[in-house]
Amino acid sequence: MPHLAAVGPADGLARAGEERLAGEESARGAVRSERRKEILRQRREELGLSQEDLAARLRISVRAYGNWERGLVKEWTDRKLLALAEALEMSERQCFWLFRVMVDRDPPPTWRAAEENRLPEDPAQRDYLCDYAALMEAVPYPSFLVDHRWDVALTNSAFDQLFQSVRPHPTALPDDNFLRFVLFHPDAAAVLEDHEPGWCVPLLAQFATALAAAPEDEGLRSIRQEVARDPFMEAAYRYGVPHWLSMRGAAAAEQDGAVRTVRHPDPRRGLVRCRMVAETSRMLDGMGLTRITLILSAPQGAPLGPVRGGGTAQQQGARLRAVPSLGE
Fold first, then answer.
1. What percent of the chain has pLDDT over 70?
2. What interhelical angle do 51-58 and 78-87 show, nearest 10?
């Protein structure tokens, strides 16, 4: 019968489709499994901790934690994942991503990140940073505090707005570690224009200097290992950076005063020239922190935006006293 003749091929197509989907699912599962292992290992290395250290924090045996890091876990319960997030000093966003990768769902709403981990123990330094955060928030330009590993300690609202379209990532968010973001986040090039020559190469040069000054620093070594696992970044680090420095000089790698371009999420701004201003104070220097501010220029013919007092940055902004205004 005609309809029976069609059953064979249709069944074959169905089976082929099922096998294809099963193969794709298996491949995705393998990638996901490797991703799970990478998250735990990379974060542990960022903190400069051994498996023994993590096991002690979790109050489990070293062998048990080794199984966790190798993915040999029958079930990832909320209790295990929350314990990991605390032991690995994860921010709220990192914990969210941990749950998404491990169990494909959000963490329980009762959990909040222990942001205290980022604050210094000295009460005077803690108070200073709280007041400094208010100072940064008053600045209309993206501004953030980083340490020698490019771990981010503070950001202001303008910084958060500039990177608002960036998707979650386990280790390379702009407000977690700015160097990792520039080098490894897939969305970095969408915000940082001329991504490779303007951002990656200068930061790799700065990173090489930092690593040479502190070769035993576990956080820097972890980034170096991640660079080595990326063939493109490894080639840039080993060959591109030395050639670039020989052509431009060591001063080209300085972040203070460097002029870059960013793509602002506000379509009225679009591509915007920015000058990087790096500075520190006595208190910040004592905490090993540097403030970096991206001074954004307005698009041609347009003001940067409103400032206090109802005017615009172009109308009321500071100017050099030695340069007379057009009306003088």
1. 77
2. 120
Give backbone dihedrals phi and psi of 317, rounded to 5 degrees, phi first. Answer: -65, 160
Q: Identify the residue whose tokens are 């020698």.
A: 148
- For residues 205 and 253, the answer to whether their CB atoms sit within 8 Å is yes
What is 111-168 written as a DSSP string? ----GGGGS-SSHHHHHHHHHHHHHHHT-SS-EEEE-TT-BEEEE-HHHHHHTTTPPP
Q: At which residue do the structure tokens 């051994």 appear?
A: 50
Do the beta carbons of residue 223 and residue 235 sit within 8 Å?
no
For residue 105, give the nearest of 78, 86, 128, 85 by alpha carbon. Answer: 78
- Pair of tokens at residue 62: 């070293």
Convert the pLDDT of each residue in 250-286 to its tens digit.
888 898 999 999 999 988 888 999 999 999 999 999 9
Cα angle for residues 153, 169, 263 (degrees, 5° grid):
75
Whether the pTM exceeds 0.70: the reply is no
Tokens of 40: 């735990």
**Residues contacting 230, CB < 8 A, separation 6+:** 183, 184
Could you give the residue ranges of the DSSP H alpha helices within the chain?
A: 2-46, 51-58, 62-69, 78-87, 92-103, 123-137, 157-162, 178-184, 188-191, 201-213, 218-229, 231-235, 241-248, 282-286, 313-316
Q: Which long-range contacts (CB under 8 A, 24 or more apart) does 228-234 make?
A: 230/183, 230/184, 233/183, 233/184, 233/200, 233/204
